[in-house]
Amino acid sequence: MKKLVKADGWYWLLLPLMVGALYLDFVWSPDDRILGASQRIFYFHMGAAAVVLLAFSITAVASVTYLLTRNLAWDVWAAASAEIGTVFTTMVLVSGTLWGRAAWGIWWTWDPRLTSTLILWVLFAGYLLLRDSSDNVYRRATYAAVLALVAFADVPIDYMAIRWWHSIHPVVITDHGVNMAPHMVDAMLVSIVAFIGLFVTWMVIRVRLLRTEMAIDQVKNLWRGRAGV
Amino acid sequence: MMIFVVMMAFLFALSLGSHVADLHAALPGILWMAFLFAGMIGMGKTFANEVREEALTGLILAPGDKIAIYLAKLTGAFVFMVLIEIVSTPLFLEVFQVPWRGPWTLWLLILALGAAGFVEVGTLLSTMSVHTSSGDLILTMLLLPLEIPVMIMTVQATRDLLTLTRAGFWLWIHGLIAYDAIFWVLPLMLYDYVWEV
Amino acid sequence: MMMTAQEKMYLLFLFLAYSALFVVMFGFMFKMLQKTRQLARDIALLADEEGKQDLPVADAPSVAPHVRSREL
Known about the structure:
The complex is a heterotrimer of chains A (229), B (197) and C (72).
Chain A: H1 2-7, H2 14-28, H3 41-69, H4 72-103, H5 112-133, H6 137-152, H7 154-164, E1 173-174, E2 177-178, H8 182-227
Antiparallel strand pairs in A: 1-2
Chain B: H1 2-15, H2 20-51, H3 55-61, H4 66-95, H5 104-131, H6 135-162, H7 166-196
Chain C: H1 5-52
């Protein structure tokens, strides 16, 4: 057991962090004057949204680096980050619709923010589909990288949508600081950190798995070459 | 392709019934849906023509910048789409009994900007889909979400033009210009990589 | 909108439920971390052995070259 603890020691930080964040969100943070308890969905929503921004940025950077260096290690990073980012986008959309039902009385509306987030989700779903269907590893990596960059064009638009256009989505972070009660800000920050911790763990798992897949392919090819098939 | 669009006009008109007020409200969306379908069929063919007899390899080996091939394909698809739009727009207006409103230069502006948006993304993606297994499916799956912004903006601009509301119209036109600019620059930077494989 | 005592209690239950869910997930992720670590080690070993071994098949075919290896 001791050896196990040592192997991925940093991982144990996630347990108190996440439970602490949950405690802050559900019990400690003050009630919202207008929204009441439904405001607490926001911590989850914001945490997931921060991870989406981080994940797709990593995908974009890794994609550019792959195109420049042609090193498949970067492709692995881009793929893992895009997969997890898509999952977190789903979480953002689901928690957003729940909150929208409570705050606006409707599940969904074609608001700029909501639309651009949905487009982002569909684009990266397409990205994963493209990764699934190509045969040549290098070609797949190149096309995926190109598509990731095209899809990433939507991320800044999504971020700025509530600031450029008249959106009904609330703007929390403005030029004048964070638009919330101080206790809520604390709870939000801890949630974001906890979600990023979750993301990091998941990334480690995915990257290791994808690397193993790649290595198995290499060993297989080696054997085939040896056997002269 | 022209016959296809004509058939779409009649099918839409028939399936929506003959209630004139409904038809008026639905026209902008239907018009651009028809263009989207026609454009997608056209774009799928952009590179399919080159698959036979390894013409694609010949194109790559030809002297000159690869970007020239992209620009040529882009121009071809753009001209094709604008022609279809110019010919079929009056037809749609006639079939749906919507009076012709607004100066024709603004009509041309929307048609050209919309076509450019569709074609820029479509050409890049169809280059990729030629090389992938089940490429047609991928092309459709990726093209549709990427075209959603063009769709929203062109439909809204068309609606504003038909109802003669100026302020909203220019907002959508600026959006379209921004979208066209982004997807004009991105493929130019990325196209070399798509061809290398 | 102030919350009633009952609502506060519900929130506490929600916190406990989510924490329990997370602990389950935490355990699962820990298992996955261990497993991927193991996999990475195994594949490194395999690749290592591969480098050392010298298979005679490729050097000197014992059958006529036109015979497919699948029929060997």
